[in-house]
User: Fold these one by one.
Assistant:
Number 1:
Amino acid sequence: MTAPVEWDGAVPRFAVHAFTLPCGLEVLVHEDPGVPLCAVWMGYRVGSSDEGDGTSGFAHLFEHMFKNSLHLNGRHHYEVLREVGATDANAQTGTDRTLYHETMPRAALEVALWIEADRMGYFLPALDDVRLARQQEVVRAERRQRYENAPYGPERFAVAEALYPEGHPLRYLTIGRHEDIAAATRARVEDFYRTWYVPANATLVLAGDVTAGEAEALCGRWFGSFPASTRPPRRAWPQPALAAPVERELTDPLAALVRIRRAWHGPAVATDDDVALDVLALALATPGTGRLWRALVYDRPLAQRVTAYVQSGRLGGELHVTADLRAGVAPAEAGRVIDDVLAAAVDGLEPTEVARGVRRREAGLVWRTDGIGRRAAMLLGAHLATGAPQVADELGRYLALDVARVRAAATRWLAPARRVQVVTLPGRA
């Protein structure tokens, strides 16, 4: 048997057997009999970037509704999974994908496959108006809890509204708008399901104590009777470009400190500029070594907390920089320091800073090779993003970085005219 993970120098390569069922479902099998467990990850190529025309929040609404299907007879799928010993069972929705996953005892693998097949093929017969209305209220309550009634929640909407024009799906965040969620009729939900949740739009990863032959037989049993399907086209949106910097100020009664958040449009996922800006973010905000962290938290100090991160998807990405200021510090004073540090980082980034960021990402990837659930997640994520299941491609982009590439990416994306700044002030609304 081939080793589950082989190393090409510093680059890991996972053993993967891939096949496609007649219905269109792609399956990736990563064999590792080291533990009597199997990780099951199902990914659908649909997220908030595929919404529009009043369907914001639909992909996330489906994440909630998809936890029941016809042959579960009204039982929640997490309840069934717990009874057979599953761990790490969860679901998540992003801009480009919706994921369902569980780690099963080897003897209970077919329970997970039954559940995944049942909701893929038998979701609509179990849908009624009562169930839809219940999940609409759950999702709207989640929006209130996590965004509207949470500290600094309103700034997330303000930044998205400044970065994206009306009608762009990324303007409304994955949670969606109240009015769109409330207007989700059964007819619109059924149309969304028939478009995006077909087998050809999904990839299933099985990792752990299962052989390729066993996987083909099991998947044929549970998914083989589904009719052939085709992957739906995904709408392409031109990436917006700001004509001038945008500055907004909010008052948040739940915020304890003044926060400055800056954001820029960024490159699409799985590109050279994507990883270059990620390394720049590490050079700026890593506690102890980051330039911006040292300038605002250690040297002055003006802030209690500094963060910088990149989020990216098929329609483009974003770079965010935040600073939670100490009491009494004026936003303008901290803003001037941020300006100076960003300018100096673009012009004077050092090789050691790039190398440190690359090593952090390399160490994180190596750490994630320990555990079949994490390996399954990496395989599925890479496959959905690029069509190739090997995570070595992403690490290769990091290892190829140097100062010139990071500086060039920063120059392309972080122009002052393309900046959004939202200042959140504590106090009564």
Number 2:
Amino acid sequence: MLDITQDILVVLLIVGGALLFRVILERLWPRDKRREHNDIIGWQLGILGTTYAVILGFMLYTVWTDYGLAELNADAEANAVVNIYRLAEGLPTQQQAEIRQLTRSYADIVVNNDWPAMAHNDTDSLESGKVNQQLWHTLMSVRAASPEQLTAEDHALYELSAMAEHRRIRQLQSTSRLPRILWCVLTFGGIVTVISSCLFGAASAPLHTIQVFCFSLLVSLVLVAIASIDRPFQGTVHVRDAAFRRAQQNMSEQ
């Protein structure tokens, strides 16, 4: 995963490559000779630009939606942990102490182990799964002696099931990526579209240079944004562990 310095370097390389291609093209095929083909080049650029803009917009919307879902899922998982902690008050004394200790441990492990592991794309090292299993074992060992305890156990099992589901979703989201075929489409489409903008035989060379610079800069920025958001738990733009830190605070105050 690229950091912010590498992202800037990628943008500079793309923009620099586009401007260098324009300079080389100007020597091999001067704009005066290209100008007579402006109708065809303009039509081609219009079709390619519109098609590629739709693809870019759709991809950016898709990864941003997935990022938002990952953020909401992490919040839901943290809320389920806090709810289990609170519901433990209605359980027998022994299980109450065990569940409260386990929920605190779960939040601590998610913050201190799971998040760093996901940042390095290492989902095999998520230690929260062990605590999840211990929570199931403890809750299933409850022998409710009153209606209140039975209700608390039922609700705690529901929240634990939700927590386990959100954890599995988080694990899947941390490894999900745009398919390579879509990255090939984005890369090839960007190259073809930028090249088409360079082919245009503008009357003013400085103005054409500015147009190519702005166009390639926009394309490169969107591609870098897609690459960063595509990995919701990695890179410079990632889902943070703020929800679990709030959960730690809420459980420590009770």
Number 3:
Amino acid sequence: MAQLIPVDPFDLIIVGGNGDLAVRKLIPSLFHRHRDKQFSDDSRIIAIGRVEISRAAYIKEVKSALMPAVSTDESEFDLFSDRLHYCYFDVNDYGAWTPLADMLIGHERKIRAVYLATPPSLFGAVAAGFKINKLMTSDMRIVLEKPIGHDFVSAKAINDQVGACFEENQIFRIDHYLGKETVQNLLALRFANSLFEPLWRREVIDHVQITVAEVLGVENRIEFYNDIGALRDMVQNHLLQLLCLVAMEPPSSLDDDAVRDEKLKVLRALKPIGTDLVKQSTVRGQYASGAVDDAVVAGYAAQLNEPSNTETYVAIKAEVDNWRWSGVPFYLRTGKRLAAKHSEIVIQFKPVPHAIFEDQNQQTAPNSLSIMLQPNEGIKMTIMSKEPGPGGFELKPVSLDLSFEETFGVRYPDAYERLLIEVLRGNPALFMRRDEVETAWRWIDQIILGWEQSQQPVESYLAGSWGPAAASVMLDRNGHAWTPGE
């Protein structure tokens, strides 16, 4: 494993510090980085919340969230807890920021990073609060959680508000999928191996599938989720970012703007899906009651206690209109309450141009390359091979598997661990630029408008299945099938 380099002294301010994201993801990620000795002794984590509790009570809450990791490392948590601070006030009341201002006095020379673990409606107000209260420093940065807005107009408004207080190179728009080890390895796979790059084009690749499937339902996010849906929640950011990394041209370097320039070109090349195409190129779904892990679970509408037209599943046939990818479908799908927790990119190659095994009644399956994101990160190449033995010439697909954890023998950091360190280092390469976010929203907005104008229904699917039958039919029209699928 690469040597871990400690980051410079910092104050990391988490707004929404006792919310679900902070307690469940951010604080545990910071604990693991602390335990791996990446933080200096005088670095601090300052949580801001609206709940009036003491610092000791907050530390107790954090310790509970970190179980069982802490149970085997009590002394390390004691050291970590020394970094933790808590203050409570209403961030919308700019006269109430005194507790934070007092805490930051004398620490102006440190890196000052602000993480907005809040609803996007607060992004502009919090950014302005730091400026109005004169808490800005020369080495400062701000992190925006997704979703950034609800559509192009709201995303632009948020970017304008935050941009009035922070320079673009200080704004880190986070998508935790970009911090996954396998997503990072996608760049290495494509651009560090002469084997693959010549094949990465329409003449050789038949189609691409990108799946992000979840077993869980919307759980306690249902009120928030009902205004968002799967398209805004997952496709606008996670899936489109994965599509960009698969489809982009080789950047001139790994410089942050060089990589993001190429991703932006892909977003601009996406074929619009308007009212005329939306029914044949998209499927909307919503889970009904079903069985997950041998337990009966309620449907989405039952959880909401009223009928809803919000999609918990979406499948899209996207096309990148450029010379490299013209005519190659990119199938995207994501959903709640599906058959398995499974995230994967599948590059499906075209069949061999001439079969020489017909006399043996053998079928040659096309090769495929699978980049597995979760639950187990790795790469799998499927090729045809002769089965051993003298009994004839029997062909069988076999897999060449690379599990990162087994190969390198290390625990791979959570995506948030990597991204938080990149924020503290001031490296924006793994974060979305303003023009990326807004261009993605323009493409998504057309689909939403198409759904409204065509009154496209939301298809029902059983919880614990792979989604609506209409999604399989969409691929079947082109002679394709989902992997994995029913």
Number 4:
Amino acid sequence: MRGQPGTFLYGLSRKLCRIDVTGIENLAILEKPGPAMIIVNHTSVVDVVVVVGTLHKLGYTVDGPCLDTCTHHRHLRPVGTSDMWNFPLAKQIVEGSGIIPTDQHDGRSAYRAAREALRNGECVLIYPEGDVQVNADASPREWRAGATALAKSTPLPIVFVAHHDTRNLGGGSVLKSILKALTGIVRKPRIQLVIGKPVMPIELDNLSGSEVTEFLQQRLIETWQQAKALN
């Protein structure tokens, strides 16, 4: 399982919950060569299981490079917490994958690595809220600056992925989230996942930094609202 977090999380997601996916056709833009971004809302540490596991199933994996013939539509470069390297099991799974580690309090090195990945024509997956503090209704919150800066760093399509309500799988502290998620083996909560219509680079051409942030935040909110309406 070394370097295969996508494979691992797909298997885990099948055991823990039922996921309804809408808008799969909007992922097709990612099959074209060149830089791209996937932007995802964040409410719990376990929503990574839902999102990354589902994307892997659909052919967009965070696993490391394939050694033989690649059957995936695309390999993704997610920005993820560096804490994963502090635990032996997690480290074994993520080491050798495309995950870009970020420090919760200083994301500068992660930003530089993500920007370089985009310049190399890769697809970066990012949680723009930066943490899992959650609103009462689990709606998307304000973004940290890095997501907008990446979106403006090079012309690229941006795909939005929103889920509702992963709190049914697990929420609260990291420990509480994980313990509740494990009961999903019995409960099998249902979670709605919506893949929104992509934003193309021409739509951002004449916008300032603050306007880009507002525009992209609103698109993520709209995608989340679609997911909420399906529940």
